[in-house]
Design brief:
The protein has 142 residues and is an alpha+beta fold. It contains 1 helix and 7 strands, in the order H-E-E-E-E-E-E-E. The protein is elongated and about 85 Å long. The chain starts with a helix and ends in an 18-residue tail after the last strand.
């Protein structure tokens, strides 16, 4: 009976500690943030060159904020880092252009970014012919 009471007391202490921690996080957010809920965010602007760490500015009524952000250096710059697409498989190689094409459908627009619903990308056709089986080394040489 005493063990059960001790476990119950321990559980109540843990619940109270977790509630207090959550309350502190909310208070900290209110100190750092504002009551404004209609924020408009601009694009991520890299600190140098055209990718890497940077910031985005947001405005809401008379307030403004800057958030840290990052543009991956291998990202397709024409789409913007705030537009996420689901791409189909690459199509066949066009003999006329020497390019493969595929399309992507908008999956998510971050920070209310203005994104195209469908985008198309191309890449040069591979000049190498991939073989499905690799040559096995060392077999038959004894």
């Amino acid at each position: 009976m005493q063990v059960r009471n001790l476990l119950l007391l321990l559980a109540l202490i843990l619940v109270a500690a977790a509630a207090e921690a959550g309350k502190n996080k909310k208070e900290k957010a209110k100190k750092d943030g504002s009551k404004c809920e209609d924020w408009r965010w601009g694009p991520c602007v890299p600190n140098s060159k055209d990718c890497g760490l940077g910031y985005r500015e947001g405005t809401c009524k008379d307030e403004s904020k800057k958030l840290k952000c990052k543009i991956p250096c291998n990202w397709k710059k024409k789409f913007g880092a705030d537009c996420k697409y689901k791409f189909e498989s690459w199509g066949g190689c066009s003999a006329q252009t020497g390019l493969k094409t595929r399309s992507g459908i908008l999956k998510k627009a971050l920070y209310n970014a203005q994104c195209e619903e469908t985008v198309y990308v191309t890449k040069p056709c591979s000049s190498k012919i991939k073989s499905k089986s690799k040559a096995k080394k060392g077999k038959g040489k004894d």
